[in-house]
Amino acid sequence: MKKKQREAFIPEERHETIRREIISLIERDSLSAREISGQVRISEKEVYSHLEHIQKTMSKKDHHLFITPSECLKCGFIFRKRDRIKKPGKCPVCRGELIQEPFFSIRLTI
Ligand SMILES: [Zn+2]
User: Which CATH number fits domain 13-108: 1.10.150, 1.10.10, 1.10.3470, 2.30.30?
Assistant: First the structure.
């Protein structure tokens, strides 16, 4: 059985710093993973793994990770499934591959 080790060499402290950076960015603006990746200077893949972590930890407090869902630019289908935060590859309705990326922000939980 293969174990996930891709983050093992990065100390946890560094992850915390990056997470705080991401949180402060998306507290001000709704950003896509690509935009976050450009500002924090980590890969999009890493951005998504941090966002997943933020999603889990934030929901315990009075703020949460708000996701503006992806949208198919061809037929307008909106990907509302909440369990996936990554950009989908294909539209299930028209099979189009022109998908608007999801946007992330931090919002107050009411
Ligand atoms: Zn579509």
Answer: 1.10.10
Q: Domains of the chain: which residue ranges?
A: 13-108
pLDDT tens sequence for the chain (110 residues) = 555 555 556 677 888 999 999 999 999 999 999 999 999 999 999 999 999 999 988 877 799 999 999 999 999 999 987 567 888 889 999 999 999 999 999 999 87
CA 64-66-69 angle, 5° bins: 155
How many Å lie between the centroid of ligand 1 and the Cα of residue 23?
A: 31
Residues with CB under 5 A from ligand 1 (ion): 72, 74-75, 77, 91, 93-94, 96
Residue 21 exposed, middle or buried by CB count within 10 Å (0-12, 13-18, 19+):
middle
Residue 68 CA, ligand 1 centroid: distance in Å: 17
* 87 CA to centre of ligand 1 in angstroms: 14
